[in-house]
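Example 3.2
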Amino acid sequence: MDAVVPHPAGPHRLAGSVLAPPRLALALAAMVDIALHARPQPVSAKTLASRHALPPRHLEAVLQALVHHGLLKGLRGPHGGYELARERRRISAGDIARAVLGQDLSIDPAAEAAFSGNDVAGIVVAPLVAEAATAYLAALDAVTVEDLCGRAEAAQVAGPRAGPDFTI
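Structure, written as tokens:
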């Protein structure tokens, strides 16, 4: 994913798109960063914010959503931070999208009502949008944090790896 590749000129801001809003791009980058660097100590929000050139307040809400959905563990204290809550091969990009986007992944009830008639919107457009949403999530579900870590390492943007992941 382009979201984890830094700009050649230095620190970057994560770019978003219609399919990968900034909140999702940030969450994916944070999860990959944490997967690569959380051993032997957890990764602090301050360190993540610094690496991704973001104010920590933008990151905290995303990290808390990931903790709330059981994808990250937040550890308190002077050496606290975040680490994966389960093995990186058992966390999909779809899991991350559902955690940080929640309702944004479904059709707005007002829009759904507009697509429920016996017209072009209801008969042609609504099924297309539903099919696209299903395909989008299926594509994200097919990619794990482990896969993204491999891509980051192959692109040589991962930095030094913290060590093997023995989380069970």
